[in-house]
Amino acid sequence: RRAQASRSSKHIKDYPALVKFKLWVARLHSQFAPLPEGTTAICLRLLFPEDDITRKYDIQEPRMTTLLAKSFGLDMSKFEGWQHEETSGCLGDELALVLDKSCIVDKDFETRLSIAEVAELLDELAALSPYSHNSIHRKHPKAHRRSRANVMQSLFRRLSLFDAAVVTQIILKDLRPLLYPLTELHYSAALVNFNTAAVTMLTKEHAMRAWNTQGLLPKFFRVRATFDAAGALAEKGTSSYCDAQPAIGFPIAVPKSEKGQSCPHALGLLFPVETVWAETKYDGERAQIHVKVRADGGSDITIFSKSRRESTDDRVAVHEIIRAALGLRLAKATAGSSRFNTSKPPNIKHTIILDAEMVAFCGDKVAEFYHISPLIGGVRGRRRVVTNVPNDDGDTESDDGIVESDFSLGLVFFDVLYLEGKSLLEHSYTDRRKILESMIYVRPGKAILAARYLVPSSTSSSTQAEDTLRWIFAYHLAGHEEGLVLKAAESVYNDYRLPWVKLKKDYIPGHGDCVDMVILGASWEKVRGRSLRAPPSVYTTFFIGALENKEESSSKPKFHSYFTVAYGLNREQLEDLNFKIRSTDPIPFSDLKSKDGLEFEVTFSAISKPTVVLRTPLLVELFGAGFTKAAHSQHYELRFPRITKIHRPNERSWTESMSLAELNVIAFECVGREHPEKEMYD
């Protein structure tokens, strides 16, 4: 299996998008060699805008249409059709059509900007977002920044029709609808006539390999996971992967995990290793922590999220926890606080990079995921406001009786990647864990190490290994834990031959949490639509709800829709559901208040609203990975929900669905909490 994986990683079968990209790269090098410094990063950031972690624009289609209208002196109404059913759902396409019809830009007009100039203007536009990287803000100081409208005019007025469409989608962080245009716009044809082999999209890994014929660029990206840093290593002529080291301030690529669909299957993915460890999978937010000790004894902390976005300011609440866990001097503001242990000697002299999960603690126990958000202290220097009302003791109390002061942020450390200027990425998991244990001062409720359990060798007795893993897994499920992550003792970090294997109950067919609820509305959502290659005529996202007054049989039914589901159905099932909804003559959401055709009342509390509302609720079976709560929501909802069955109305009516009260009772039991009104339900 390892040999096969190694061969497949080296020999990539060409596909149309990759062939075209290779031809373009060859032509670029032949016409403009030697390429200017920084060209690698410029091209990759333009081609894969969704992976450009330095530029953030705070611009989605509604704001983009306003800016485009101002840039070209057009009425905004001309852009309203970008997500109509008969279109591809691409604003870039719509812009090209509008400009062509209005004759503002001549068809033969050629772009007067180089890619470097386009990149510079995009940097200037991104500097207006507080979420862009600090390097972008330093490049364009606040005192000298132009308005968005002025930057957009400078950019778009010098672009051809097609290039204007491309740059529009780059700013919207999604080039897919232009690079891989849809061939079907009718909902049924788009879903049923889809050929999975017809379109293979260019991946950034394949693009990097094609750009750098030595194949080193994707390897550089694994240790410095930004296009700028990896591109700079490649352009310097770094001769081998061994010469590329991690560095403080540059994210390291996060390993991709396999999904274990049973205990034997999970172990089989790591066969025939001698030793496997099962780590507890904690329900939190990933934090890759970079620490550099200054000459004056202070320390600088940089934190990256799972998506490689720098989130140092967002995670300011855990900075002192990190320093205390490493025995470093605390900041002056907290140096005298009894909440942090400052009596230990420092465990590092210069630098360290750690992998951790930021969690909410209730005492010494890790709490549910949704408690993290209210505890995060700062977002880009701004305070988040906790909207809960103080109780008689002055503490804030949530809707289900939880006192917020019982919770605090903490960290679960599970790996060390870099220490005192030396990479640990090629060290075994066993060695890295031993080093990690020597680095961290454990303090329950603040900083702990991930719990782990030894699984005996599967080479000597596969039955014993499987039985042991089943017991460990069952123990975690009984304790309301999320699951396990299996790691081979001999594996290096981000080892494609011996990957990490996640084992969760919802990965196992027939397991997970299952509830009966109703679909009340539907819409096309662009992210899900584009992953399906489905136009706006397809309903991709469904608004789920439950009865608020099920016990009041004489009253008009009142539904509350508070979350959505977009996964679980194959293309044929999704086409059938679309047909069912359309055949019942649904009501446009915009007409809901003026229509009196519904036999029930419904409230939609999700941020987005449906395109249509069903005249009769449709009962569905939902499957998920436990329960959670959205911000400011009073009710539990399924986590990672999927539709597993659509009930025909003549077989099971919507009246058989769960009420909100019944759902909350089940959710409280599943997360291991006692319902505040348990006696009433008993």
UniProtKB/TrEMBL annotation:
<feature type="domain" description="ATP-dependent DNA ligase family profile">
    <location>
        <begin position="402"/>
        <end position="548"/>
    </location>
</feature>
<dbReference type="InterPro" id="IPR012310">
    <property type="entry name" value="DNA_ligase_ATP-dep_cent"/>
</dbReference>
<keyword id="KW-0547">Nucleotide-binding</keyword>
<keyword id="KW-0067">ATP-binding</keyword>
<dbReference type="Pfam" id="PF04675">
    <property type="entry name" value="DNA_ligase_A_N"/>
</dbReference>
<dbReference type="GO" id="GO:0005524">
    <property type="term" value="F:ATP binding"/>
</dbReference>
<dbReference type="InterPro" id="IPR012340">
    <property type="entry name" value="NA-bd_OB-fold"/>
</dbReference>
<dbReference type="Pfam" id="PF01068">
    <property type="entry name" value="DNA_ligase_A_M"/>
</dbReference>
<dbReference type="GO" id="GO:0003677">
    <property type="term" value="F:DNA binding"/>
</dbReference>
<dbReference type="InterPro" id="IPR012308">
    <property type="entry name" value="DNA_ligase_ATP-dep_N"/>
</dbReference>
<protein>
    <recommendedName>
        <fullName>ATP-dependent DNA ligase family profile domain-containing protein</fullName>
    </recommendedName>
</protein>
<dbReference type="GO" id="GO:0006303">
    <property type="term" value="P:double-strand break repair via nonhomologous end joining"/>
</dbReference>
<dbReference type="GO" id="GO:0006310">
    <property type="term" value="P:DNA recombination"/>
</dbReference>
<keyword id="KW-0539">Nucleus</keyword>
<dbReference type="GO" id="GO:0006297">
    <property type="term" value="P:nucleotide-excision repair, DNA gap filling"/>
</dbReference>
<dbReference type="InterPro" id="IPR016059">
    <property type="entry name" value="DNA_ligase_ATP-dep_CS"/>
</dbReference>
<comment type="similarity">
    <text>Belongs to the ATP-dependent DNA ligase family.</text>
</comment>
<dbReference type="GO" id="GO:0032807">
    <property type="term" value="C:DNA ligase IV complex"/>
</dbReference>
<keyword id="KW-0436">Ligase</keyword>
<dbReference type="InterPro" id="IPR029710">
    <property type="entry name" value="LIG4"/>
</dbReference>
<dbReference type="GO" id="GO:0003910">
    <property type="term" value="F:DNA ligase (ATP) activity"/>
</dbReference>
<dbReference type="InterPro" id="IPR036599">
    <property type="entry name" value="DNA_ligase_N_sf"/>
</dbReference>
